[in-house]
Design goal:
It is built from 14 helices and seven strands. By secondary structure, the protein is an alpha/beta fold. Helix 7 packs antiparallel against helix 8, helix 7 packs parallel to helix 10 and helix 7 packs across helix 13.
Amino acid sequence: MSIGVIGAGKWGSALAFAMSEKNEVFIHSRRPRDIENFVSLEEILRCEYLIITVPAQQVASWLEANFVYNNQKILVASKGIEASTGRFLNEIYSKYVPDENIAFLSGPSFAVEVQKSLPTALVVNSLNEELSSSFASLFPSFIKAYTSTDVVGAEISGAYKNVIAIAAGICEGLSLGNNAAAALISRGLVEMERFGVSYGAKPDTFLGLGGAGDLFLTASSPMSRNYRVGLGIAKGQTQEEILAELGEVAEGIGTTYALHEISNANNLYLPIAKEVYAMLEGKRPQDSLRDLLSS
């Protein structure tokens, strides 16, 4: 099968590597890369199957400037909520791709481990079950691919877990201990499930690979960019200093700002996300800890 991967960062490159076990894979990014099977935008858009890894905060502008729909089957492999509008990715893509031709990838998946062919399990989420099954069949032998129709739940869990990962990094950076980390992650799971159910997501989604699985991974390892954002906040670094040190996108930051706006507009109780937002805006982590414990 011919697959086009849009985005040649770590995650896009890892997915291109993984999918090449069974398929012919081409890759494209905004900046030309001297890598195997790199093709132009025109060529990549002619592929029947597309995997898009464009970061959540750039998706709308990228689609507007570059995307031409030609009945392609799309798998969205980025995670986040648009900070400026509070839109989920499925809402952004709906302007360009019909529901029956789009799926969303979720589950625990550090790019560096995928590049090493280490085993994991992921979920392809789509309202079109035939499309989910088609994409699931393309994955390599070291990735077990499940399918689900809960697009909203997959999107929210994939985005929200990055915010909890920032909080977990702060917890580690402040040396608060294993008890605190376990309490934070478990309450984070409750918080993101409560948020998701309010949008019609299925509760079971948050106990599966895309929810608990991805959350446990991202909120427990410095391999996670969002976890490293939290470590930087604990050290007193500014957002600008943290991002300069990372040298790459941390989706949890934009999602935190989106959740702040959504919670204010809808009077939602999101205590961890609220405190992560406050710390990104300069609140002392010790003060946020005090407020979380007393709320």
